[in-house]
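We include the pair:
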Amino acid sequence: MEIQNLTDLLTYTWDSALTLVELGGPVVAVQLVISTIGFAMVLYKLLQFIAISTSRFRAAERAIDLWGEGETELALKLLGRARLGLARDLQFGLQNLATADREQLRDELSRRGMFFLRPYGSLLRALEIVYYLSPVLGLLGTVLGMIDAFRHLAVVAGTEAGSSALANGIWEALVCTAVGLVIAIIFTALHALLQTRLERVAEETSNLLTKVLTLGVGRG
């Protein structure tokens, strides 16, 4: 089938899904529903991480440097333009750095950093469930397909339909296994990608908060 536009792609995808369900039975239908939900979560997470670019962290870091150089007004303007949720927490740390107890300020900034990171870590556990559950469902479909095959084989044993019944059952079982493995492989890779990005955001966050707390160390 030649795919020329989005409508053709959606039609092709839907027809392929129906074909898989016909071949693999209800277990494949459950696998496809789970994978569809999983892809929606992946798309949401990708958009979320794309929105928090490295340049925003660099702008915030530059603002901290300007504050340390005495350019407080320029630093505040740069933090405001950084479009980074953490910017308000950085501003809080900078404004209270000279007066607050360092240990209390450290704890408060750590708490704020944790709440800043929390949305970016959401749904990753759900994605783990997708790639853990898919091969298990594939195994379930395999077992059910083999049970169904031998049940039919017992009914038509000794006839020409016996081999056909066994082949159909094995076919259904293998389709379930294949679909489960493909889904598991895809979501394992996607989860690793998102986890890596989350770790990068956490490192950038830790760097900025630590930079605020150590501002001026080694100068003068």
Q: What stands out?
A: The radius of gyration is 27 Å. Residues 21 and 36 are 14 Å apart (CA to CA). The chain has a mean pLDDT of 84.
